[in-house]
Amino acid sequence: MKIDIGNALASEASPGVSREALDRLDERVARAHERIERGRRDDEFGYAALNLPETTDPDEITETVAPVNDAAYVLVVGIGGSALGAATIAEALGDSRILTLDNVDPDHVSEVLSLLPLSETAVTVVSRSGTTAETLANFLVVREAFTEAGVDWTERVVTITGDSGPLRELADRHDLPALAVPEGVPGRFSALSSVGLAPAAIRGHDIGAILDGGKRAADCSPSLFETPAYAYGAVAYALDTRGAAINAMMPYAESLESFAEWFAQLWSESLGKDGLGQLPTRALGATDQHSQLQRYRAGPRNTLVTLVRPRERPDLRVPETDHDDLAYLGDTGLGELLDAEFAATEASLAEAGRPSIRIELDRVDEAGIGELLYTMEAACVLAGELYGIETFTQPAVEWGKRAARGLIGEGNDESESVAEKTRLVVD
Amino acid sequence: MKIDIGNALASEASPGVSREALDRLDERVARAHERIERGRRDDEFGYAALNLPETTDPDEITETVAPVNDAAYVLVVGIGGSALGAATIAEALGDSRILTLDNVDPDHVSEVLSLLPLSETAVTVVSRSGTTAETLANFLVVREAFTEAGVDWTERVVTITGDSGPLRELADRHDLPALAVPEGVPGRFSALSSVGLAPAAIRGHDIGAILDGGKRAADCSPSLFETPAYAYGAVAYALDTRGAAINAMMPYAESLESFAEWFAQLWSESLGKDGLGQLPTRALGATDQHSQLQRYRAGPRNTLVTLVRPRERPDLRVPETDHDDLAYLGDTGLGELLDAEFAATEASLAEAGRPSIRIELDRVDEAGIGELLYTMEAACVLAGELYGIETFTQPAVEWGKRAARGLIGEGNDESESVAEKTRLVVD
Fold first, then answer.
1. B 152-191 residues with CB below 8 A of A?
2. CA spacing 20 to 30 A to A194: which of A202, B30, B197, B427?
3. Cα distance between residue B344 and residue A367, in whole Å
4. Distance set, CA A140 to CA A103, A128, A133 (Å)
5. In which pathway does this enzyme or protein participate (chains A, B) (predicted)?
6. Judging by DSSP bridges, how do beta strands A178-180 and A121-127 pair with one another?
7. Are A266 and A379 contacting, i.e. CB atoms less than 8 angstroms apart?
């Protein structure tokens, strides 16, 4: 993993951070590193996430899911951090047979259930509390679909949940394979645990190699100039405080599209509090050059673009053509073209004095995605220390959860206040 | 179509716009409306897009694609505005057999081509100039895949292009069905033309009904208090100038996920210039309540959230359960739950004094998507007038296009400057 912050320096971009400011910031990084290391040593809430490459036992996961590892498909029923890690890993491994139900859209749920051969499908249902409304509603629907299809759902379901609650009780009652959500790890930091790894394990992927990738990034030294994760977290923080309120995560690989979604959750829920926090927005190279690049290059100077690419990927040759205007495409490869687009976009932003950071991984494979996920998590924890906020909580979503529950259930203070909406309707 | 701007008023949110400021802004809306109407009357560049519901002939499209309308699948080869409109319409109509190749990722292109039954697949290849690097490279690969599969590609391909260039010459040489990209309409405004409609026409959808939906929105009166499109464009502009530099487009329907991508292109390329322009970011309800809502509600006060929902949708019943903690879910519907999440999120933002706008369409169907696309286009054109920028160009992407072409071809000034990159690498 290489992180290149050259195009985020004040000598190159505005906003940008000067070398001198980085040197000063590095002293704060060293202190933050001490705090993080203490949290890791004591397995403190949140910080424990950075120990997952060591504390997660891949064999235990593989053995627990063995009863369903004949499945051709895996359906992940979860939402937010209970789904995004698994989806990100599945996509990075090129496995399109791991699907996710992470929304309660009736049309979409019906379509997914009608397309899946349920007798060949394993289900992981993921909720720490066992009461997440969207997840449990979907699970009840999925369970009924199995029964209607004549498939014994108790033979196909793995629960991933906490020590108590409805899902744990269900697992106990029906003797389902059950994995524990790791203690002290918020959902958005749980990709390198049973939560993110179980679906890949069911499908036979080498989840040990994913954890090994995480381990490659887990040995952090106390300087942003030596640790890629800290370089990223510190520079993103420094740019935010200098006006880059937006962080556009733009991988150049379709297999990292879900990674950008995962990053958006990590960054938003961890850092978006107390009136602080950079807005993460998701983009995809080269596609979004024809959508977002105009604004990144010529809009307000409030956007950091994070460009991610693998150094190696299989290529696909573009056939030769005798048309003069297209001859330059012949005998190149689609991957070569994609890499050229990457370099051109990076240079185009630099030419306009807009900040970007380059993240390079060797390949999008087991170790590559493990290393990338861990690096971004450590970057986020560092940024949280620099902001001085509570990185591991998400208090602002609780009000809405209670209101939604009240609206479909027995009512409560929050749901009553929904009715007070101010209207100014134009139709 | 209803647009509710009540939660964007200064009495409710910060940033917000006062009723008095809206009244003053409405005078500028009236003048902008005059300018827009003149542009429409004279079919001026860009403004002509707002005439598409009248000027697009659905029968001509349907007749032109008749030679391939037996296809079970349609593959759209295009990028940016040449793909997003078609993808948005396909998704809104629930048609998962219209696929898009809008990136030059070798793995992804290989996978799509391996999954498609090519003998039952029609291809629309879309590029005004006929030289867009990504599109033409993909088309050369697709054409070879047909040949290798023993399928005569000249029987399966429809071109959608300008009056000249390689694609036009190809169509002439092989007598392919050919549709014209409309004159004077930038790609991102071309959804309601052959560009957006041809794939749906091949699959037998009622594209006349989509255009009828557009017509419902096309009769604009000169006040933001009477025209939903102007209400949206004017309030988004007013909030941006008051600090809402970000516009989070958050539909509550999986079938509108691509719509949010389409909107992001429309908003970015049209308004992101001269140092101006709101950053559009894409979200999805209810999923992103567990990802982005924390920051929308508790991060910096720089974000407008646009909530979109259909008033009607088919529902899917959640089975009853005897578990006490889950009993409130029983006998509700997934759609009912999704609507409750919508209301809860809207109220949750209001309770925190964060601005939102509600957009309601009747249903996500042919007329609904036509009306929604047109409304957002008219909103964008109005916003462009209020910003005082050139809405219909995208000059900032040209540098990168030349650089990329230089990197894989004969070299040029831009590609040479790519090599000058400043590096500060941490690994």
1. 165-166, 169, 187
2. B427
3. 40
4. 14, 17, 11
5. Carbohydrate biosynthesis; gluconeogenesis; Carbohydrate degradation; glycolysis; D-glyceraldehyde 3-phosphate and glycerone phosphate from D-glucose: step 2/4
6. unpaired
7. no
Which pLDDT value is given to residue A328? Answer: 87
Of A24, A21, A26, the closest CA to residue A11 belongs to A21
Contact B425 A6 (CB under 8 A): yes
For chain A, state the CA radius of gyration.
23
3-state secondary structure at position B169 = helix
Q: Which of B260, B278, B252 is nearest to B360 (CA)?
A: B252
Selecting among A91, A269, A346, A366, the annotated active-site residue is A269
- What is the full DSSP assignment across B176-212? --EEEPPTT--GGG-TTSHHHHHHHHHTT--HHHHHH
pLDDT band at B29 (very low <50, low <70, confident <90, very high): very high
Tens-digit pLDDT profile for residues B279-323: 999 999 999 999 999 999 999 999 999 999 999 999 999 999 888
Q: Which two tokens stand for residue A375?
A: 């690096």
**Chain B residues with beta carbon closer than 8 angstroms to that of A143:** 319
> Chain B residue closest to A101 (CA)?
B287
Predicted model pTM: 0.98
Give me Rg for the CA atoms of chain B.
23
| Separate counts of helices (H) and strands (E) for chain B | 16, 11
Residues 309-338 of B with CB under 8 A from A: 313-316, 318-319, 321, 323, 325-326, 328-330, 332-338
Average pLDDT, chain A: 96
Contact A400 B228 (CB under 8 A): no
Which residue among A254, A271, A328 sits closest to B103, beta carbon to beta carbon?
A254
Amino acid B193 reads S
pLDDT at A18: 98
Compute φ and ψ for B5, nearest 5 degrees: -100, 10
Question: Which of A80, A137, A426 lies at the smallest CB-CB distance from B231?
Answer: A426
Q: What does the block give as tokens for A76?
A: 């992940």
**A258 close contact with B: CB closer than 8 A:** no
Q: Average pLDDT for residues A61-67, to the nearest whole number?
A: 98
**Matching residue, tokens 């990722």:** B105
Task: Count the neighbouring beta carbons within 10 Å of the beta carbon of residue B119.
Answer: 14
Contacts of A126 (CB under 8 A, 6+ apart): A76, A77, A78, A82, A83, A86, A135, A160, A161, A181, A195
Neighbours of B150 (CB within 10 A): 8
Structural domains of chain B, ranges and CATH numbers in brackets: 2-37+213-387 (3.40.50.10490), 50-205 (3.40.50.10490)
Q: Is A219 on the interface with B (CB under 8 A)?
A: no
B11 Cα distance to chain centroid: 32
Which residue carries 């109220």 as its tokens? B347
Give the minimum alpha-carbon distance from B282 to chain A in angstroms, rounded to a whole number.
7
**To the nearest whole angstrom, how far is the Cα of A373 from the nearest Cα of chain B?**
15
Residue of chain A whose alpha carbon sits nearest to that of B248: A281
Which residue do the tokens 């807005």 mark? A279
